[in-house]
Amino acid sequence: MTSILLALVIGAAFGAVLDRIGATNPNWIGKMLSLTNLHLMKTILLAIGTASVLMFAGQMLGLVDVGHMSVKTAYAGVFIGGLMLGVGWAASGYCPGTGVCAAATGRKDAWFFIAGGLLGAAAYMVSYPMWKAAGLLEGDKLTLGAIPGSDYPALTTISGDIAGIVMGALFIAVAFILPERLRGAGQAVAPAE
Amino acid sequence: MVLNWKIGGVLLGLVFFAAVLLVKPIGVSTQFVILDAIIADAANPGLITATDEGYTSTNAHLAKSGGAYAKNAMTPLNYSFIFVLAMALGAFASAMARGGVGRDERRLPAIWYANYGDTPWKRYGMAFLGGFIVLYGARLAGGCTSGHMMSGMMQTAVSGYVFAAGAFAAALPVAITMYQKEG
User: Fold this and answer.
1) Sign of the CA dihedral B101, B103, B108, B111?
2) Model confidence band, residue A193 (pLDDT cutoffs 50, 70, 90)
3) Among A17, A173, B128, B164, who pairs with A116 as Cys (CB 3.0-4.6 Å)?
């Protein structure tokens, strides 16, 4: 029961924040990915950095349970799948989470995105044995540094907690350094919506 | 008006941190498979079957990791599935609180109108195709923008960096080519 309550609270907060930062709006995504308005990119980089610093600092202080981490396996399919997601993300202006949120706010095209997504996920379910047989799903749950209290294999011998805080700080710094736009001239234009 | 990036970024970061602090990292795309499995099992009741230890499936993807996906499809009142439903509710409430998304936008986003004119069905077709590629790719990668890019990179997961590199390497040229007019 507690876990359902947490799902409701954290899920609703996530959806509300995605709506408020413009991530559920394909106009903002299109401008971000065509590099003509990086406001949303700065938001996301700052978010990753903030979460990273808080989590690793919390783990160092013993306030955050390392067992709650869940590192995904790195394998060749991650890169291929990333390329595919990138194409569809740019073309549609939605990713799985923001597509669901946008549909909830009444955007018609987002419902078509979800329908296509359900079909795409089903197509993967059917073709999964092919990728597995090709050996493209094999890998390790690698992290940058060795994280105390976890048994994830590490890429380097540096402390995982320090690596996490440094990377977090780096994300925050990039969020501040990044200009408003990288392509086109003049002030970055915000979508009307 | 969207939130200033400094405020929005900290708020979004706090949500991702709260998820790890209280439960586990945020992820969304797996739930598309779970909903597919629920629908497919309703249409074809032999797809998922109970075993002594839990559930299994005639579909290899649903049966992997000891039938984890099969189990979630049979017990949809679990954290991850409810999370996605709550996310939709949160976005709806937030949009309503700021006056709702305008009628024109709901029908056709401005950036599409600026580049391709008043062609809503072309847009819906593109959104459908985009959704197909996005979810196929996310399942192949084992996660999406939430699970790999944000949750992954915040945990210094190598898979997160690899995914982000792939996603942006493809997304930037496609967006730059497709959406030349700013809208």
Assistant:
1) negative
2) low
3) B128
- Complete DSSP assignment for A3-36: HHHHHHHHHHHHHHHHHHHTTT-HHHHHHHHTTS
Q: Smallest Cβ distance to B110: which of A24, A75, A191? A: A191
Distance from C-alpha of B94 to C-alpha of B4, rounded to nearest angstrom: 16
- Position B182 scores a pLDDT of 82
Q: Kindly tell me the burial class for residue B78, based on how many C-beta atoms sit within 10 Å of its own C-beta (0-12, 13-18, 19 or more).
A: middle
Residue-by-residue DSSP string for A95-124:
-HHHHHHHHHTT-HHHHHHHHHHHHHHHHH
Domain residue extents for chain B:
1-100, 109-183
ipTM: 0.97
Provide the 8-state DSSP code for B157: B
pTM score of the predicted model: 0.97
Strand-pair partners of B71: none
Encode A95-117: b = buried (16+ Cβ within 10 Å), e = exposed: bbbbbbbbbbbbbbbbbbbbbbb
Q: Which of A21, A78, A126 comes nearest B2 by C-beta?
A: A21
Is B42 an interface residue toward A (CB < 8 Å)? no
Phi/psi at A145 (5° precision): -120, 170
